[in-house]
Amino acid sequence: RVGVLGFSAGGHLAATLSTDTPCGDPHLDVTGAIPDLSVLCYPVVSFIDAVHQGSIDNLLGGSPSSDLLQRMSADLNVTSTTPPAFLWHTADDEPVPVENTFAYARALVRNNVPVEVHVFPHGAHGLGLGEGEAGPDEWTVLCGKWLNRHGWAHPGLPIS
Asked: Taking the complete model, does pTM exceed 0.85, yes or no?
């Protein structure tokens, strides 16, 4: 089994892998390469709404077509085969608006894919493990419990 974890732009990559979003290269066959679950931490998801322009510019260049923006918006590519996801974000994240997390979660719910979402009131973008930040510092424990409920517990690692 394979799980994928990503933060911010890495969250976009993880969500893209999870939705089997077309990569644009017809010679690259990624069929069956979708992970079994994803953990998305303050992810960039949409290239249409509440966008993080830096991610678009760095990944697609200065003037991508609207078709390409839609194809690269993971929330628009969720299907019933998208794996379960654990998502977390902070409500006051300015660089990557929390709407990205909400859009992906809504798409998962619409497609009957299990999802757990945690939105903490405060915390700057790029918190990583959230150490020392009340609220976001709990995400690793919450995620560990979620992983446990999905059968991903490691016998040598206690989940508290």
From this structure: no
